[in-house]
Amino acid sequence: MWELLIFTRMLRFLVIEGNIGAGKTSLSKMIARDRNAKLVLERFADNPFLPKFYKNPDQYAFPLEMSFLADRYNQLKSDLSMPDIFSNLVVADYYFNKSLIFAQNTLKDDELILYRQFFDIVYARLPKPDLYVYLNISTERLIKQIYKRGRDYESNISAKYLKNIQEGYFTYFKQQNEFPVVVINAENIDFVCNKTDYKTLLDVIFNKTYEIGINRVTL
């Protein structure tokens, strides 16, 4: 019990990430609710370029990625710099590195060079997470979950696009050495509907210690 209290007290900024449809927002909301944490959710639904991008990616990729870059920076800077007097824990369903991962899969080479210059300047100014959790799920299950939630603008997402995004995440994980990344194989669990699976996830996140770099967990 004493070790649990020590670890929980040190965990101030928790990121829950994953590919499109992995359940990162659902898990973030559940943790924030049960741990009385400040919740930071990505505001992708308000982005006017997102539906246009899915229909015409070549034309709208650059304005989409630049708008996400600016919005994510402003949101994280604001939410992470303002302490919550009721909670010491912040839970976010994305981190700023997501901007670069998606941009590498959507932008042309010359656009990416320009984009990377802005990204590097902004990234250096943001706090780093104490723990970064990545929910790893197969492309087949992602497609099923995307279809199940029924967002019209996501109907054109292809398996190839999802695989490219996943590869981008793992390439990033191999390169970063600033904080612990826990890659959880969540293929065979349902933490939304199964309380046991959810409690198992909480144990992995809050009751274990991890080294900087990639740490892999299979449930």
CATH class: Alpha Beta
Q: Major sheet, described briefly?
A: 6 strands, parallel
Distance between the termini: 23 Å
- Secondary structure tally, helices: 9
Output the CATH topology: Rossmann fold
What class would the helix/strand composition place it in? alpha/beta
Order of helices and strands: HEHEHHEHHEHHEHE
Q: Percent range for helical residues?
A: 40-55%
Number of domains: 1
| Uncertain runs | 1-9
The assigned CATH architecture is 3-Layer(aba) Sandwich
Query: What is the residue-averaged pLDDT?
Result: 89
Query: How are the strands ordered across the major sheet?
Result: 2-3-1-4-5-6
> Which overall shape is indicated by the principal axes computed on the Cα atoms?
globular
Using the CA coordinates, give the radius of gyration. 17 Å
The oligomeric status of these chains comes to: single chain
- Count the beta strands: 6
What percentage of amino acids are in beta strands? 5-15%
Please identify which CATH superfamily we are dealing with.
Answer: P-loop containing nucleotide triphosphate hydrolases
Give the topology.
Layout: H1 2-10, E1 13-18, H2 24-35, E2 38-40, H3 49-55, H4 57-81, E3 90-92, H5 97-106, H6 109-123, E4 131-136, H7 139-149, H8 159-175, E5 180-185, H9 195-206, E6 213-218
Parallel strand pairs: 1-3, 1-4, 2-3, 4-5, 5-6
Helix pairs in contact: 3-4, 4-5, 4-6, 5-6, 5-8
